[in-house]
Amino acid sequence: MSSLKQILVVGNGMVGHHFVEQLVQLKENTDKSVTYKITVLSAEPRLAYDRVHLSEYFSGKTADDLALTNLDIYAQWGVEVKTSAKVIAIDKVQRFVTIEGGETLAYDKLVIATGSYPFVPPIKGNDQEHCLVYRTIEDLEAIQASAQVSNVGVVIGGGLLGLEAANALKQLGLETHVVEFAPQLMAVQIDQGGGAVLKDKIEELGVKVHTQKATTEIVKSDQSRYKLVFSDDTALETDLILFSAGIRPHDELAKVSDLAMGERGGIVINNQCLTSDENIYAIGECALWNNFIFGLVAPGYQMAKVAASHILGDVNSFTGADMSTKLKLMGVDVGSIGDAHGKTPLSQSYTFENQPEGIYKKIVVSEDKTQLLGAVLVGDTSDYDTLLQYMLNGLTLPEAPESLILPMATDKPALGADALPDSAIICSCHNVSKGDIVQAVEQGACDVNAIKQCTKASTGCGGCAALVKNVTDSELAARGVEVNTDLCEHFAYSRTELYHIVKAEKITTFDQLLEKHGKGLGCEICKPTAGSILASVWNDYVLKDQHLPLQDTNDLFLANMQKDGTYSVVPRIPGGEITPDKLITIGEVAKKYNLYTKITGGQRIDLFGARVEQLPDIWRELIDAGLETGHAYGKSLRTVKSCVGSTWCRYGVQDSVSMALLVENRYKGLRSPHKIKMAVSGCTRECAEAQSKDIGVIATDKGWNLYVCGNGGMKPRHADLFATDLDDVSLIQYIDRILMFYVATADRLQRTSVWLENLEGGLDYLKQVVIDDHLGINAELESQMAHIVGSYQCEWKTTIEDPEKLKRFKHYVNSDKSDDNIVFVTEREQIRPARFDEKIRVKTIEAI
Ligand SMILES: Cc1cc2nc3c(=O)[nH]c(=O)nc-3n(C[C@H](O)[C@H](O)[C@H](O)COP(=O)(O)OP(=O)(O)OC[C@H]3O[C@@H](n4cnc5c(N)ncnc54)[C@H](O)[C@@H]3O)c2cc1C
Ligand code: SF4
Ligand code: SF4
Predict the structure, then answer these.
(1) 249 alpha carbon, closest ligand
(2) How far is the CA of 16 from the centre of ligand 1 (A)?
(3) What are the phi and psi torsion angles at 271 (to 5°)?
(4) What is the mean pLDDT of the segment spanning 808-826?
């Protein structure tokens, strides 16, 4: 006869849910004489959601997008759930719990997964309105509501979560400050040097960081809503305060039911995650193992697995967890591995710092320099995967360990997937080893999605995504399986293959391409990709009816949409050279249409704040004065920056402006997988910063040095020197070939920097193709470029000459009314978009 075991899970956070998932899976393979009845009690009003990615709520994800499960799934699993059901007491003897409101529920085994709560420091005034925390979806809703009536926000706490919260405040449009008690940011994960670089980078992004500040009081203020008063008698004005000063375990249940607890809180557990009561387990952030609370999700998942298997009669052990982390904080890459502070006795360290570019790397090694103990990476985490594998697998370090972090080290060892042992942990969240992936491939998984489904690798924090792909691809390749590079479910071809199909078969529309080589209706991946390929090959007018559905918003209106729904207007100013008359026209247009003007890093003038219906009139005036589109909206050539060169500068050795004009006018219509930027400097002093561009040209006494595939932006890359002392003709010939080869072979949305890094054979191979004509395609590349150059048209000129096309430039389909949600205020004598509270004020005044 089958016996029934009641399993009660208190808390349905990430770990509580993972426990349920594990138990449901594991019980399938166990003794069927026992039936398990699982009941979940959740204090929150909803089922488990992805707290790790909570901040994505502010970038448009909904509660449903973040959900890890739903009622249907639990019903299918036979799991009963009660939400908004806070457990307030446990009777260990009679084995039942009491829910707020009085209901009781019996258990055979109880699992406490109550997680933790944000610690709010005992500062006078901390309980006022607009003093908030960052842990649940409801917290985020409260922050959003408060931000709408606030101008300034302060996060108290400069740890990992504090910086994530600061990013959210910034995204919500607030002037943002971080106040930290310690002398540095992220003091737990990174060392002082890394903390200093991180602070600089975060301040560059517009968040003010105040370290070594102890807040003593929050008082009302006349200037803002509140004033934070610090112990050093300074103060900071703010409207919203977000506490992110650490977490505390939700251990009240242990307290009231007399379970063993740590001195500073936490429910004490053993290696099987059992508390001091043999029928009660504790897992996740409420559990104290070896006097340690783990504030990350991966250790909680491991505890969940151990507890589930113990309930089913197996003895697995929780043996601690690696706390290494890699994350992006406000776009700044930060990585922390193992003993980041070098606390291991006699350990040694190597540090590399590139101050101008804000990169800091440190490795901590054993006394004999053979083992990696820890690392800190700020500004560049490209070495993280390799370093982590060295540490986790105890791999012997190369003779010069510093080569692991030095950027130019020619013998820099990169741990390829093949070099890793089967025991190497690839995904820490789900404890997936390389061996698990190998096994899944052997059992038929044939792409990363299949690996994700059957091993769960890379479905936690996602930090291992690149490594999972590498291991999967390398295992597939080793078995002779072709790695799936399909563009999407509608086309079983890579972007490169589609490019060649379009060209070879003279396909001119997406419908033809879909009919002959695809299936279904197309999607947001294949449509713009096909649009870009068709434009690259045929250089057709992008607003032709058949191409319209392929364009994104910016291309559709030939302008970049800004955050308030207005558009920018960017005329081309080749090489940054402009006549006074054209400058006057730009100024007059800006004045007439009340546009904000700004000189950009690409040496041209952007005009902001144009309503969609104003765009044609504005462009008509600009074009009449001899200006043309700057393609700021397209994946195409943006600008060619130049210095004044030998014409004016006493150091100049060549005429950099003429070369920049030649280059910009030649490539200005070229549509490509991503945007392209170029620059020409008149001598090696490099005032035009050519080495940070996709194509960089630097004058020499004998001609021009050509640099390729550099990048500024989010992930800077120094350009590689491709050829030296070229004459004008060879220079243009090489650029023609390189650009067309990039257009033909890059992946969708791949900048030249990433393209080159992924190109098998790298720079040497590119030289073989372009200089030695290794593939015999140079004539074809040149003729393709000649076609693009010869068929150039200013898209705005074509548009304003076609009354049919102009009909699309209005805000409402059925009315000529303007978007009344667009409101400007004046700042520094120009317009800027009004913030939410200002909009309300302006509208109220208008109404009066
Ligand atoms: C913004 C943010 C970003 C994060 N980023 C990362 C990251 O990048 N990487 C990482 O590893 N970790 C990250 N974390 C931490 C990670 O989310 C936690 O480690 C993880 O959620 C812990 O899971 P848990 O189930 O133990 O606790 P929780 O997720 O807190 O769940 C506990 C649940 O129990 C409920 N509960 C509490 N008491 C009771 C009671 N008496 N009765 C019933 N229910 C109760 C709570 O309401 C809650 O729903 C982040 C956390 C936040 C807030
Ligand atoms: S790069 Fe050389 S030529 Fe150009 S402005 Fe600077 S110093 Fe002068
Ligand atoms: S202009 Fe570029 S760098 Fe500046 S905020 Fe926008 S995306 Fe970021």
Answers:
(1) 1
(2) 9
(3) -65, -15
(4) 73
